[in-house]
Amino acid sequence: MQTDLFIAGRAVAAASGQRFATFDPATEEPIAEVARGGAADVDAAVRAAHAAFHGEWRQVTPAARGRLLLRLAELVAAHKEELAALETADVGKPLKEAKGDVDGVVSTLIYNAGAADKMEGATIPLGPSVVDFTLLEPLGVTAHIVPWNYPLGMAARSLGPALAAGCTAVLKPAEQTPLSALRFAGLALEAGLPPGVLNVVTGYGEEAGAPLVRHPLVRGVTFTGSVPTGRAIMAMAAERTIPVVLELGGKNAVLVFADADLDRLVADVMEGAFENAGQICSSASKLLVEASVADELVERLRARAAKITVGPGKDDPDLGPVVSDEQHERVLGFVTEAKGSARLVHGGARPADLPRGWFVAPTILDRVPPEARIAREEVFGPVVTVTRFTAEDEATAIANGTGYGLVAGVYTRDISRALRLAQTLEAGSVWINGWFLGGQQAPTGGIKDSGIGRERGLPGVRNYLQVKNVGIRL
Ligand code: NAI
Ligand code: MG
Description:
The chain is an alpha/beta fold. The protein is 41% helix and 21% strand.
């Protein structure tokens, strides 16, 4: 398979004529030759988005934009099997998860379609001789740089609100996983979005992502990915004084108290730590467990993890491979290092029956010291760590003791403790007695190194609107 860029509603090869290979994580075999976009292609895409913003898209009413996004949602739903198969081929994730991702994209588009004509300004009371009001205006051309863990989900999370707000967009998918974004852009054109409103430039971060952030016609950047890349993007955006929305991952502590519903917790950890092979910014991968229930909990986690099936995503196992050779090495490197100071309870290596493909067995480590690298840095693999505590203060200090601040979890039946911790835990989201709470309606994002800004919900749409104040002396 060969793919092109998608600019001004047309598939075009990269100006350089170059392509690069992407690989099936389950087999390590090449699956596509993808256009290797560079600065010249980024320039063409941004100019197309700029022309669309100042041309046809400007004339579309907010209500009509909403209807176009609804039509796109219908087309995505109608192509669920095809999009899910592309996602599974690229990322390696089980098909049932990929189908769930497509459902999430549909919900996201529907939510933002509904918001398109409901973003209202304000009138400001300044007395009898002045009328003052605000206009909410779209930023213009926005850049969307997304990672490989939820390629379509992350793209829709920012494209949905940007398009609803009336912006136009250039999307730079991750180099590992470009296929679903290209198909999505084709569906957007089919839905009736004017050519140039949504453009896709595939390629590497340095070659295509950086020139996109630096392009003089880009008026805002949304990025999800690693902390170092987020910082680099923010520095580039600072040179041009444009706003950034950054979601940079997490190291999410889950505080488990002795009075918790352990059945629910175990079920939530199986999903929260092993879904998408643990390659989730909001993974439930770092358990802080009250010492009196730790032995029982670790044994229950081990028994459940032992039942997890591992295999190629297309066969719909519980757990697929991780995305790349690089990620495979990284995850196993973390585990190997951690074994020096913690106890390996389960997994910890490639499953013996899967000699090829970037597979990692579901892994549980117990008695992990809070200062260990695996307890402080994002692993992005199917790995759960257990650290024991005796007092609430101690658990809070461990949870707040990393640079990240995306999600924190609390499992307890004590409502006062839960609400106290909701205030003291340093995170953009606190989830109590459940995991992966929220959805497209609820704002999400990080504090500290986990990022800047909030996505989803109406705050997600406001990211793409700027306030203009109009004052009139009567
Ligand atoms: P990355 O942050 O380098 O890549 C994410 C996206 O940014 C990709 O589209 C990439 O092409 C682009 N990019 C890279 N360098 C760029 C630059 N200089 N200018 C503009 N765009 C650039 O993440 P990577 O290297 O794929 O993964 C490393 C680690 O990052 C993972 O192991 C994981 O811990 C974390 N990560 C976190 C994610 C999250 O959901 N917050 C998603 C993906 C990775
Ligand atoms: Mg990188």
